Amino acid sequence: AAAFLNLLGFTMTGPITPDLAKHFGLPVGGSARVGMLTSAYPFGMLAGLAVWPRLSDKRGMRKPILVLSLGGVGLGLAAQSAALARNAPLWTFLSLRALSGACGGASPVAKAYLADAATDDQLPRWLAWREAASTFAFIVGPLFGGLLIHGTSSLASVVGVTAAFSLLAAGIVGVFVEEVGADKPVPERKTPKLLSTDYTSCPLGSSLIGAIATICAMSALENAGAACWDAFGAVLARNRFGLDARGVGVMLTSLACVSFGVSTTLFDRVRRRIGLVRTAVLGLCLVATGLGSVGLARNSLTSFGLAAALYQLGKPLYAPTVPTLLLQCVPPDKRGLAMGF
After folding, report:
1. Are the beta carbons of 119 and 192 closer than 8 angstroms?
2. Among 1, 333, 54, 335, which Cα is nearest to 165's?
3. Rounded distance, CA 290 to CA 309, Å?
4. How many CB atoms lie under 10 A from the CB of residue 216?
5. How far is 80 from 12, CA to CA, in rounded Å?
6. Could you give the CA distance from residue 92 to residue 80 in angstroms, rounded to a whole number?
7. Hey, which of 68, 117, 144, 330 would disulfide with 338, CB 3.0 to 4.6 Å?
């Protein structure tokens, strides 16, 4: 629920990116300048990912870090809403987005928390369910954001609602989540390999440094492509095919339905049939093919949608495999740090 609410706030802003550009007088076709609006948050997140996951590895700190991270993002979004309402300059808005990003370390900490409680067999399935919850936010968020901006014509209102969702997520974690695997024992069950001292089951080999370096390189390349889609997918749809905010929202919601279906019905079957590593490779191939086809789809909205759907098909096959592989290759007291990479 917390992952859904936190990402719901993020996904709601997807359809309003072109409107944000207009608000600050940026040419919608000026990709480099529009990119500042979407890159400010992940730029700040670089600092957050270097701090929050590492702190969460300390005894009993998973839950407090999750609450602080989600709450900090919520407060940062509230400040962005106020900046928009008061017509603050672009640099102020970008600074607030970067500061909000610096609080955004909840995702790797949540994955480390799941690994604290999961068995070897449970972990990829739980991570796929978390991915499905996040994807559901991509189904609801763009549509909700598009309808909200269409009905209110207020960018500040849309961003303000996203702040409320992040703060609600922090409250849910604070009230309902219990610390597991740190100052409290793991519930009695067969001890999984992930919680033992034997890490020879690492599917990427016996070299810890080599395994982490391999996964980090994979993640960096995939995230670069995902960042391009997140930053410019809505802009491309508007520039090439004339979609308004509501149309972009419907498009993004429809594409997210593809990912949600894969996460909930297909991932675990594929993983059991061909293994984690091959599932990751299959997902990456579909992601690369989809993104490349998006770039080539210039004249047909149908071709653009099919290419984007191919990307959305591959992403949920790949996304749960990375943390699962990495968590199987690091000791428990390094999980937060590893997820931060």
Report:
1. yes
2. 1
3. 7
4. 14
5. 14
6. 9
7. 330
- Helix H, strand E, coil C: the string for the chain is CHHHHHHHHHHHCHHHHHHHHHHCCCCCCCHHHHHHHHHHHHHHHHHHHHHHHHHHCCCCCHHHHHHHHHHHHHHHHHHHHHHHHCCCCHHHHHHHHHHHHHCCCHHHHHHHHHHHHCCCCHHHHHHHHHHHHHHHHHHHHHHHHHHHHHHHCCHHHHHHHHHHHHHHHHHHHHHHCCCCCCCCCCCCCCCCHHHCCCCCCCCCCCCHHHHHHHHHHHHHHHHHHHHHHHHHHHHHHHHHHCCCHHHHHHHHHHHHHHHHHHHHHHHHHHHHHHCHHHHHHHHHHHHHHHHHHHHHCCCCHHHHHHHHHHHHHHHHHHCCHHHHHHHCCCCHHHHHHHHHC
The whole-angstrom separation of Cα 101 and Cα 192 is 34
Measured over the CA atoms of residue 66, residue 70, residue 73 and residue 75, the dihedral's sign is: negative
Rounded Cα distance, 327 and 336, in Å: 9
| Token digits of residue 292 | 């490349």
* Residue-wise pLDDT tens digits, 125-176: 888 888 888 878 877 887 788 788 878 888 898 889 889 989 999 999 989 8
pLDDT in tens, 252-296: 888 888 888 898 889 989 999 998 889 989 999 999 999 999 888
Question: Which residue is listed with tokens 């100052």?
Answer: 183
Tokens 């409290």 sit on residue: 184
What are the C-alpha distances in Å from 141 to residues 6, 119, 227, 251? Answer: 10, 32, 18, 12
Length of the chain in residues, anyone?
341
User: Looking at residue 56, what is its pLDDT?
Assistant: 86
- For residues 72 and 100, is the Cβ–Cβ distance under 8 A? yes
Q: In the predicted model, what is the mean pLDDT of residues 81-97?
A: 92
- CB half-sphere exposure, 151, CA atoms < 13 A: 8
